[in-house]
UniProtKB/TrEMBL annotation, chains A, B, C, D, E, F:
Name of this chain's protein: Amidase
Cofactor(s) recorded in Swiss-Prot or TrEMBL: Zn(2+)
Keywords for the protein's UniProt record, in alphabetical order: Hydrolase, Metal-binding, Zinc
Lineage: Bacteria, Pseudomonadati, Pseudomonadota, Alphaproteobacteria, Caulobacterales
InterPro entries per the UniProt record, alphabetical: Creatininase-like_sf (IPR024087), Creatininase/forma_Hydrolase (IPR003785)
Keyword Glycosyltransferase: no
Family: Belongs to the creatininase superfamily.
An MF annotation (GO) of this entry: hydrolase activity, acting on carbon-nitrogen (but not peptide) bonds, in linear amides
Gene Ontology annotations of biological process type: riboflavin biosynthetic process
Length: 249, 249, 249, 249, 249, 249
């Protein structure tokens, strides 16, 4: 069930049987010569939407499609929120969902660079309750889609060499499966991109000339993407159920 | 051309021939018994994406899908950013696009409640340059899709009675055209909803029992939606070209 | 009754019979070769103070004399608050008045450039209550003095040509009536100023060489100002009474 | 010369001969049974406006009429900015004046409770330059009107007993001189109000039942107010000249 | 009793018999050719820790070791918080201590440049309660160590000439007593440093070539430091007891 | 070399030969029945100070002694900064150090709960440069002391069972070695504490009755602490040298 394609009475009815909602969250940022700028928000959206087709218990909020990607700004098309802005926005999304009675808010994340800020945002929200000595009426959970049970292991089997950490063949494969009309090709030089630290945008572009980090996106295929989605969907439904079932202490 | 389905080299190439980009911007909020929660971000997205199919000069950024809708929070499914958060986020989106060399940033808006905050956000961004006594390298423009040339006039012809101002038959028609599988029906009582002021969420729900303001959404049809989209697309392409062509003083 | 010239026991007594207060709000910004820098806060102050002389029910707070005028900064004398600051300040004024039991807070505005930020500020305040699922104990209303019943129509009759949108003969006439010792004259070239968009300060000065937009301030006279004030005062008292009488839903 | 009653060309001309401007700054807060709510902003306004009549070198900006008065909120009519808001607003006023080329910005203050926040605001502004390793193009100075040369000594002679620290006879006398039609009377019980610490608003009202601190406002007369204004004006003009004449190191 | 070297059950037990806590607060900033960068936080820490050895009623929180020192940034080693950051941090420290039930929070300050911002921070915290019409459950007090009873008088006796206001012999003496292994020497030229206003960092360094203001640190000795500490400790314990004993109104 | 016990000329001289500085950073929070409230800032301080004794190249800034610990607030003595405050403060510390010419700023962290916010703070700082299209003149690095080469492995050997994640025997051992006079004992029930998620403070206290998570602090001894410190110091000096030696791309 997609929240944006539902009416408020439908959400009201859903809340009678479940208090859990998924927010796909990612980033709109360069992904090398062939990766889509939307890769990091398209992947969790693809997986969450697929999950919602498999289970009536899966309610998916609109996708939070821009995240923390300051280091990618020297590559055209990147759009990002600075951490303070990102935290404020996550806070308002969460307070809104919490106000409706959602008790379990599950962020399915598609961008490693988001993790620190999302966790900081959770702490910022909890801190309001801690200062007031009140129980927070909802719990938040962050899960990267590649950390869903079995997904990373599958990716390692699919791409034992050249997976890397940015513009990875696994994430590109997922978008190829989801958007087969938008598959791009390029010559990669070197085949496997370099690795190193992440600092500000000009430093990043100086280190990673075409935007990849440690990856060989040429390995991606829509079929592999389909396998990853399939595994992710199964694990997501399970993980979500466990979170939903968690009792309050 | 959709930015999220493009690569950074494609955007780099686009910037060689155009410095203009559209950002569909809306809200995720209740739209009465039958309107989709996503109505206000789906409408500008539908129109902008259609325009991008018609013209290679139309580049569409990801949709900014949550806006200022505090007054709708008492209806389940509404997600909003408070104005200060919304302004910060618009600022970061715009600074990101400006950093790539976009000189004309065109927000196609789908939510009346966004207008004040978006304009305040523009002023906040311009003020940075004003205080520094610098020219702002980009211009921003806000256009509501219903204010595109001919659109509102068409809606008035289509819905001479019962158009109203929230959960209007015109916006619902556009989403029916775009998402024909998500058309909902309900009995409306009264047929045409009441009107009045907008204050905080509980006041809003007390005044507008089913979430509509002055509207009769039963009048919406996908066909009328298609007519509205057609008109909007033509006018959007023209308006965008005029904005793109505006010379710097 | 002027709040600043009252004592707290007088305000305490006033609150026994009325819960309504006016805040004149404007801007301190250039108004062309002959308009006073204070024009936009002087106009609503003049009108509100006149109204307070006519009716014991009209309580006027101190004037909020600096607003959102970033675009005028390239002209000496302009002082402005960026929107985020302006919103914070409006918030604190309003919370203060609300804390005393005022239930209807009426902002009589003198600057078009303030409108978006004031409305965003209202939403920011209401949003606190919406998130907390509480009723806001007060309602806010924004009214531009030229939108008071009959005022704009009168101005159009007085100045059928050359009214324009900034440094208008109507606002200058009001200050001429209020401050007859501060009437200035100049040669205007061109007679009617150009119009166009509003961006950052240097852009504004490049477009509007002497600071006017579309106006011919030479048409202003203190007599016409007096007529405008007279009309505005009558309508203000009526509008305020309607607002004060509005029942809570 | 009053900035608000001047045009931008007049300020442009003034800047040719002087780079100094006064900002009267105060608070709108309860001042006991008979003190005007505006006392703390009226006093510096009265003194600065008088000074501007005596000297063409004295340019007076609009009055910053609301300040830091959280502790007075339990008395009706008080309006205040929390320190963070107040600092932001002082910052924007100052940046605006600095942008025009004012090099000496002189805040004539009328409220002891403002001092800490105004000084913190100055540091916040200077810190921007310190972090950027730039010289600040303007200097700020805070002066309480009672600290102007000879003023406090005169007040001590006028009111050797019962001057106190809030709703003092000296400040009330100044407003009596400035606003003779708004002189109020009351029985004070006790004659001289108690003293003590300042905390939040309810604590304040519990300690200071009628809002005075250590003062006997019955001692105030318009004549004494006139003497104070006279002394303050002379000293202000001198102090301002010294500040204006201070060379940059 | 040092909070950082205690366990939570020990603090829980302490709160059974006392609701008072000291927070040493200072700054890490240049102190002339021989003064330690930590001088301003070491002094209150030394005094507070000594006091805690003398009395079981003295509980000392960790030292807040960075404050408002923007003007010293042009001298290497200075670390500062801008006022807005400093206020936010003081707020969170205080809210944390208040949440545990501390009712008297005593800031023993070592830096004159902190005073304004700390007081503004107190007002910011109290303002939350004032707006909510609630009593603040705790009271805050700021005391500079040199303002403790008898301390400044002793310093004036010890250093009748050349005490000055920054890098004073008294504060340097205290650190010499506390850190005898870190005593530094230098030739001072001139012997007594100049005085003047405080603005941004480059202005400060231009005025005060070696970082001192009005002082002759060569006068400092560890023995004099010991005398100052002794006096300060006695007075601190007394002042703290008076604050602790203050009844709520 | 300890920055706080140095003078500015000493730091100026240090900067001639090194551009690297360590900031010990931790938290002041409950650490179970026997762990010191200061554990998380004492550990990195102990290690960094030891390292500074071993090598003239190790310059240690004052300790940032309060961090993100909202979840511990229900245990007395905890003091924390909410993430937004913490980020602002880290930003000001870092900008200060960067202003002096430090090019490598190394945060030695003692609290797992700080990691997300510190990384977000780094991104916030870098983002300023990314938006301005400038190189950041300094690089920041975060290292948890237990992640220093060989440290965690040693802890696993020392405490193969009952190490846990909060109030661990390894961190308590380090403070026992550093503060042998402050060793506390208690009966632990159960011997090994439970584990689980981290949410707001009341939830935390409900889950973890005595404040420990998964740990058996009874295993700690000062000797084991000494071994950990020894290993950490060697690795810190090496890690710091590698960071210092990293060339700019």
């Amino acid at each position: 069930m997609l929240l944006a394609l539902s009416t408020w009475p439908e959400i009201e009815a859903f809340l009678q049987r479940s208090k859990t909602v998924i927010v796909p969250i990612g980033s709109n940022e360069q992904h090398g010569p062939t990766g889509l700028l939307g890769t990091d928000w398209l992947c969790p959206e693809i997986i969450a939407h697929e999950a919602s087709k498999r289970s009536d218990e899966v309610l998916v909020a609109p996708t939070f499609n821009v995240g923390m990607a300051q280091h990618h700004l020297a590559f055209p098309g990147t759009i990002f929120l600075r951490p303070s802005t990102f935290m404020a926005a996550i806070g308002d999304w969460t307070r809104s969902l919490g106000a409706h009675g959602f008790e379990k808010i599950y962020f399915l994340n598609g961008h490693g660079g988001n993790v620190a800020t999302i966790e900081a945002a959770f702490s910022e929200i909890y801190a309001e309750y801690s200062f007031r000595k009140e129980r927070c009426p909802f719990a938040m959970k962050l899960k990267n889609w590649w950390d869903l049970d079995g997904v990373n292991a599958l990716a390692m089997r699919q791409f034992p060499v050249g997976h890397g950490s940015h513009a990875t063949p696994s994430e590109i494969a997922v978008t190829q499966w989801g958007y087969p009309d938008s598959i791009k090709t390029a010559e990669y030089e070197p085949r496997i991109a370099p690795t190193g630290p992440i600092r500000e945008a000009l430093d990043f572009r100086a280190r990673y000339a075409d935007g990849r980090m440690g990856s060989d996106p040429a390995l991606a295929t829509p079929e592999k993407g389909g396998e990853l989605v399939k595994q992710a969907v199964v694990s997501l439904i399970k993980d979500l159920a466990a979170f939903a079932g968690e009792a309050r202490v």
